[in-house]
């Protein structure tokens, strides 16, 4: 028996691991924790995650409906794609954790593919990582439209936006699939994700690469782009406030008509990005420390908090769009008013029938 090194590559490994016999020709690197049956704290955490996923799937589906009804899926392609990523993440979150609650014994080809695609959280993190890539692309689009408005009309062609969307999907899938299929396995009916690293150095390098690529670079891009955006918006506000002469009336009216829509989208995405940074900080820092060999548990309140924050992020986004994004808010208000009207008419009919 050998004690496995406490290395843990992925920010999305929640598959439990045991101290197992190490084959002479293969060394496993991963954190050691006995796979637990769905009882106690693990059971409560998994049930909570399922509830979060169901609520997030319902709210994201409603926001997607509102975006389509308001025709914003044609105007704001990246925002629409961001909501698709969030919806897919919530659906995979529910499916993955329901299967974990079932505590299945994996055998044969079906067991292998369940492990590689779902129980290892592969598809879940394909969608989550794709959402991170798309969020950065969306931020760059906002930056170009606000800071470099003239150039954005030249560079932000339809094919560029579609290419960014395709890259977010394809890049995340290729990246995550290559890691999972090369480091995951099924042993004695249990799925072990991100375990079979060729060397300790490989696990550390990939872990640091993931932290830098999917967190540090993204946060730097968000901070830089929105800092420049806010500077330009403030400057434009001062210029427009100074336009009081009659000759500038037409120009000011044109800017007043076009700026609110852009400003509304920018404010909405700024809030989404702030939620991203706050939600991903605990998870990214926690698992970076584990990758570097710090002896941290993969259970308990700190682990549950760090993991749940990432899942809460994809469920809070719909509320941001519902409150801040004007086209979506108008559609939702219409739905609520129609529902209230139908309820009131039904009550009036019942009252009339009762009097009769």
Written account of the structure:
By secondary structure, the chain is an all-alpha fold. The chain has one domain (40-329): Rhopdopsin 7-helix transmembrane proteins. It is 76% helix and 2% strand. The chain has 11 helices and 2 strands. A hairpin with a 2-residue loop joins strand 1 (185-187) and strand 2. Helix 5 (122-147) packs parallel to helix 8 (200-241).
N-to-C span: 83 Å
Query: Helix coverage percent of residues?
Result: over 70%
The fourth-level CATH homologous superfamily is Rhodopsin 7-helix transmembrane proteins
How many strands appear in the DSSP assignment?
2
Structure annotation, total helices: 11
Pattern of helices and strands: HHHHHHHEEHHHH
Domain tally: 1
Indicate the proportion of strand residues: under 5%
CATH architecture: Up-down Bundle
* The level-1 CATH class: Mainly Alpha
- Unreliable stretches (pLDDT < 50, length at least 5) are 1-38, 244-258
Q: Sheet with the most strands? A: 2 strands, antiparallel
Give me the secondary-structure topology.
Elements: H1 40-69, H2 72-75, H3 77-102, H4 108-119, H5 122-147, H6 149-155, H7 158-183, E1 185-187, E2 190-192, H8 200-241, H9 249-291, H10 301-324, H11 326-355
Antiparallel strand pairs: 1-2
Give the gist of this structure.
The protein is mainly alpha-helical and 356 residues long. 76% of the residues lie in helices and 2% in strands.
Keywords for this entry:
356 residues, mainly alpha, Rhopdopsin 7-helix transmembrane proteins, 11 helices, globular, disordered N terminus
């Amino acid at each position: 028996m050998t004690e496995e090194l406490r290395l843990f590559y992925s920010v999305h490994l929640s598959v439990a691991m045991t101290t197992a016999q190490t084959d002479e020709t293969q060394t496993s690197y991963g954190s050691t924790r006995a796979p637990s049956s769905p009882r106690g704290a693990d059971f409560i955490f998994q049930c909570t995650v399922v509830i979060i996923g169901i609520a997030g799937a319902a709210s994201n589906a409603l926001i997607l409906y509102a975006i389509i009804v308001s025709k914003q899926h044609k105007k704001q392609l990246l925002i629409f794609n961001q909501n698709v990523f969030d919806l897919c993440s919530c659906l995979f979150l529910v499916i993955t954790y329901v299967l974990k609650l079932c505590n299945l014994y994996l055998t044969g080809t079906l067991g292998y593919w369940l492990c590689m695609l779902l129980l290892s959280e592969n598809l879940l993190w394909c969608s989550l990582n794709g959402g991170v890539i798309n969020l950065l692309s969306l931020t760059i689009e906002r930056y170009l439209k606000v800071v470099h408005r003239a150039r954005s009309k030249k560079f932000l062609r339809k094919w560029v936006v579609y290419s960014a969307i395709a890259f977010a999907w394809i890049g995340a899938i290729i990246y995550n699939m290559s890691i999972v299929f090369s480091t995951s396995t099924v042993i004695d009916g249990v799925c072990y994700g991100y375990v079979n690293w060729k060397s300790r150095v490989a696990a550390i390098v990939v872990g640091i690469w993931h932290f830098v690529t999917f967190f540090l670079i993204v946060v730097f891009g968000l901070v830089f782009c929105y800092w420049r955006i806010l500077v330009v918006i403030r400057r434009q506000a001062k210029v427009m406030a100074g336009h009081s002469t009659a000759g500038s009336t037409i120009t000011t009216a044109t800017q007043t008509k076009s700026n609110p829509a852009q400003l509304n989208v920018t404010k909405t995405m700024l809030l989404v990005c702030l939620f991203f940074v706050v939600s991903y900080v605990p998870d990214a820092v926690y698992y970076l420390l584990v990758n570097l060999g710090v002896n941290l548990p993969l259970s308990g309140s700190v682990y549950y908090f760090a993991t749940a924050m990432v899942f809460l992020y994809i469920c809070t986004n719909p509320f941001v769009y519902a409150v801040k994004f004007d086209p979506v808010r108008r559609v939702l208000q219409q739905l609520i008013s129609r529902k209230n009207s139908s309820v009131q008419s039904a009550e009036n009919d019942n009252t009339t029938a009762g009097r009769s």
